[in-house]
# Entry
Amino acid sequence: MLRALLDYHAKGNRHPELTRVEVASMAVDLLISNAELTPRLIANTLHHLLATNAYTTLLPEPHTVAMAVQETLRYDPPLIGWLRVTTRDTRIADTRLPAGARLLLLLLLLGSAARDERHPTIDPDTYNPTRTDAPPLLAFGVGIHYCPGAPLALHLARQTLTNLLHTCPHLALSLPEADAPAHWPTNTALRSPEHLTVTW
Ligand code: HEM
# Structure
């Protein structure tokens, strides 16, 4: 993909909707997303399955594993917010925003939206890897900038989890979460536990 983007510009294409800065920004997305977000999705899924003891009853089957990964993306996604710039005057709920507002201060809170109490999700603040009432998934964005790496990330997370369930069926936190709560470093965008100490 990077090659295609670079070739596109090398050939003198100057499509107004894909500026040089946007190509650079997408290169950063490509490099960081794979290295940062997919491992964090796997860590978050593993943490919640172990902390809630759901790991021991989860069957290593495509459907159940996919549901667990899906629930992590709702309950505790690795990317909790992303930045925006408004292209025209707009309004979000009761807040008016002028065109060109830099959304460093206007962070789109994907993680929070997935627990919106106005959506009829039962117990939105509970991690439930078997739930069937999840709201539409926001963790990979929406619309024209929807994450192109979503299928790869989902495949890697599901495959890693399936392999772990097969090879380490007795995986457990070294200490129960209640006795040794995981530390989640503060970050405006990325989220995952600092360590996951386990026994098998
Ligand atoms: C769990 C893993 C991942 C999550 C949660 C995630 C999340 C997101 C989100 C929310 C966006 C939309 C940002 C926006 O609307 O401005 C996005 C865009 C993007 N992602 Fe991912 N991503 C993940 C994995 C990946 C992987 C593995 C790749 C590439 C190998 C990737 C490449 C990209 C790129 C290039 C964009 C920019 C698309 C555009 O601006 O049109 N992502 N990602």
Helices lie at 2-10, 20-51, 62-75, 110-113, 150-167.
